[in-house]
Design a protein that fits this description.
Elements lengths: L4 H10 L2 H8 L7 H14 L14 E2 L7 H10 L7 E10 L2 E9 L3 E11 L2 E11 L24 H17 L16 E2 L7 H14 L4 E12 L2 E10 L2 E12 L2 E11 L17
Protein name: Putative lipoprotein
Keywords: Lipoprotein, Signal
Length: 285
């Protein structure tokens, strides 16, 4: 190709070619989840067709480092070193008008990321994400940030599992009522994918104690969103880590009505004077 993949994408966005693609592309029965996966993969492959899944006239961006709308995203893509962007979608789930993904990225360096997309009338109209540098080694129990089950089961229990996680986040993480931990876990059985924490409820406790001795605090102020499909539930929360405003994305796997496994990404929330859009980090509907 005479033009780089990144430049092609930027041009596609900036000239609103998405609407042309949408009008000319054959209509398929792709689910919203499949549309998101295709769009994310296209960032690496350069396939222009999935751009048509975005509403070119109404696309709200909540990544605070990116300008609003398609033009903002196109400007970002222009600045990515040619051939460096890699995308490996590990998990993808849907909940009503939302699709959320867990992705292994190379995006200005290796990163772990969660993305949330909101749809209206089959088109993507809003995007949130949380990104952090990818750990170079497994955690103390040998788990990476991405390994473990990937497919949702127990679809009929989605509502129940979402309520369980919402209650856990508000009771334990926000209110700090740690005497109630036993209500949410099967003893000490708890698989942990945080890069610094070992398995088990005891592993979490040991890590929090170690941080406290170093003067490092992790505080959850509020939960903003709970999304789920079957036995996988994502909680989006706001708080502080080491004294800095932080966005917490926590993905839980539920088994036998207990929390069995956990993946997460924490991202520092940048100050308002550094932001490229005014939509806020959260702002869920």
């Amino acid at each position: 190709m005479k033009k780089s993949i990144v430049f092609c994408f930027a041009v596609l966005f900036l000239v609103s070619c998405a609407s042309i693609q949408a009008n000319n592309a054959p209509q398929t029965e792709l689910s919203n989840k499949d549309k998101v996966i295709a769009l994310l993969n296209s960032l690496e492959t350069g396939d222009p067709a999935p751009v048509g899944y975005i509403n070119p006239d109404n696309y709200i961006q909540h990544n605070l480092m990116v300008g609003d709308g398609l033009a903002g995203f196109g400007e970002l893509l222009k600045n990515i070193p040619q051939g460096s962007l890699k995308v490996n979608v590990i998990r993808a789930f849907s909940d009503g008008d939302y699709v959320f993904t867990h992705t292994d990225y190379n995006f200005f360096g290796p990163k772990a990321g969660f993305d949330i997309f909101r749809f209206e009338d089959g088109k993507i109209v809003e995007h949130w994400d949380n990104l952090s540098p990818k750990a170079e080694t497994p955690n103390p129990s040998g788990h990476t940030q991405f390994d473990g089950p990937t497919q949702a089961t127990d679809l009929s229990k989605t509502k129940h599992n979402k309520l369980l996680v919402k209650d856990f986040v508000n009771t334990i993480l926000v209110k700090g009522e740690f005497d109630k931990l036993g209500n949410y876990f099967d003893g000490d059985n708890y698989i942990q994918h945080n890069s610094a924490i070992a398995d088990g409820v005891s592993g979490l406790g040991n890590a929090l104690d170690a941080m406290a001795k170093q003067g490092i605090t992790m505080v959850y102020h509020a939960n903003h969103l709970i999304l789920g499909e079957g036995n996988f539930v994502l909680a989006v929360s706001e708080g502080e880590f080491a004294g800095k405003p932080t966005s917490f994305y926590d993905l839980f796997r539920i088994e036998n009505n207990k929390i069995a496994e956990h993946w997460d990404v924490m991202e520092t929330i940048i100050p308002e004077n550094e932001r490229k859009n005014a939509n806020g980090k959260f702002g869920f509907k």
